[in-house]
Amino acid sequence: MANYLTWAPDVQQLDDGSFIMYYSATTAAVPNGSKHCVGAATSPTILGPYTGLTDALFCPLSRGGAIDASGFKDRNGKRYVVYKVDGNSIGHGGACGNTVAPIVGTPLMLQPVGADGHTFTGNAVALLDNDGAADQGILEAPFLTRSRAGVYFLFFSSGCFATSGYTVSYATATNVTGPYTRASSPLFRTGDGNGLKAPGGMSVWGDNRHMVLHANYGGGRAMYTTLIALKGTEVITT
């Protein structure tokens, strides 16, 4: 892993009280810096310092690399990491490199891991992929949670972040490995009357009520907060 173009950190507390941080970074295995992999680092305290693992956690370079990892602990104690296979980095052009046919897959993957947050305990499973041009060839920024009723909610962004087609969406399942069914429409998108422009990249606090996301603001991006409720297979914004 290279030490530049590093983004998308996610910190999880492990059962022994220590912490693991997942992050995306360019890889030195590709000289032009066009591919990212997911790394992990651990620390006994949340403030660090964090010590990186020797090898990348996810680095499928033949499929474009990997980004946007986040951890999930199920109610039965099992741990998983969800991440995006970065197929748009090997796409054939257009918005964010992947709206020109043939559109490359950008599957959101689920990897079971052990109590240390990084040792694989089974095979990765693809949960959802982009729906071609309707998603501008992109799904990314997965975040997984489970409602009290036992429904799994897979939040994600679709579309190119540099366009008004970027959204926050979700899909639901009754099993952590799926199959996942998309909601009928995005949760947040440009033009819905909420004032958000190109919203994406969300996360939900452990209470499944408090959500943060980012959207265009001035000449850059800003963080926004909102309240949600998980009811049945729907996400209600409040």
Automatic annotation (TrEMBL):
Q: Does the keyword Transmembrane helix apply?
A: no
Q: Which Gene3D superfamilies match?
A: Glycosyl hydrolase domain, family 43 (2.115.10.20)
Report if keyword Cytoplasm is assigned: no
Q: What InterPro entries does this protein map onto? A: Glyco_hydro_43 (IPR006710), Glyco_hydro_beta-prop_sf (IPR023296), Glycosyl_Hydrlase_43 (IPR051795)
Keywords associated with the record: Glycosidase, Hydrolase
| Homology family | Belongs to the glycosyl hydrolase 43 family.
The protein in question is named Arabinanase/levansucrase/invertase
Q: Which organism is it from?
A: Aureobasidium pullulans (Black yeast)
